[in-house]
Amino acid sequence: MSSDLRPVQPIKRNWGFRFSLSTLLLVMLAVAMYFGGRASMTYRYALAPRLAGSWQATLPRGFVQPATIQDFGEGRFLVRSRASIFSGIYEWRSGQLVAVEPEDTRMIGLVWQWDGTKLTLVAEPKNTPTGSSYLGTVMTVAPAKSGP
Fold first, then answer.
1. What pTM value is reported for the model?
2. Does residue 3 carry a pLDDT above 80?
């Protein structure tokens, strides 16, 4: 009977292959993230929406001012508005229009957030140089003119 007993051998697990596969996947993920980030820097303007055309800016107190946006390409836009504090050259940066050359140099720091249908003013210069805050101003596409 003692000849029927065999010594117990530990179960061999193939951890080496699994470790190598998971390491390979992590390395591939890191490389993809690196190249994806580099590509996004190259194509950051490719995702800018079509903003060119006639707009209307509704100020926080309810006043409505006409505005136009002209696309210069490569993520640069010219905004013209009767409310001249918004006028100037803007750049598209990660879902926002950022004032880079405002006509009124006190207004550097204006930032408009794009939500897919409208632009909302989310940042302005510190100490409100014009005396009034325009945060919350909303620009929407102007309605089409009807009639002859």
1. 0.67
2. no
